[in-house]
Amino acid sequence: IEEGAFLECEALVSIDLPEKLSYIGTGAFDGCTSLISASFSNALTTIGSCAFVDCTSLKEVILPENIEFIGDNAFGGLYADYIYVPATTKRIDWHCFYSPEGGNPKTNIVYTNREYRPSTWDANWALRCEVVWGYKAEIEKDGYKYATYEADGVKGAILIGYDSSIINFEAPEEVNGYPVRRMCISFKENK
User: Fold this and answer.
1) Cα(first)–Cα(last) distance of the chain, in Å?
2) Structure pTM?
3) Bridge partners (DSSP) listed for residue 138
4) From CA 189, how far away is CA 170, in angstroms rounded?
5) d(CA 179, CA 158)
6) Strands 130-132 and 23-24, bridge-based pairing
């Protein structure tokens, strides 16, 4: 998909990219504020700079295992519920994912099954985002939602959400064998 192909196409609600698509150009979907879902092909290897910047309605980003490069600000300004970056990703540039400053208290949670940030991922690749390194799975138990992880020899769970019917907060010490070690910055109500 070429540079700016769907720039500020506010009527666009979802995209299902062809299986053989390997490249999304710079600003291809920049400013598509009504875009709710995007399905990426397994052949996708490159996402250009600002490709999905300010797609403020995009709820989920699940990148394929073959992704090699994600340009700067590629998914900047999102309010996504779920972002997954595979460990096989070779390079991620500056502010690839960032939560907007002010206005919305929600912080994006970025999951990766990688245990640490490699030198080819910019130090500020996930600005104002909660990163779950060594991600294993999401677990829902007793009205709470957890992200489990194993990184640097440490196993744990992060409390990331709750059921709106819960009145008294009582997080357990462990969930399915994973010690609950922290609560996400944007601990939020499950929808």
Assistant:
1) 33
2) 0.85
3) 147
4) 15
5) 9
6) unpaired
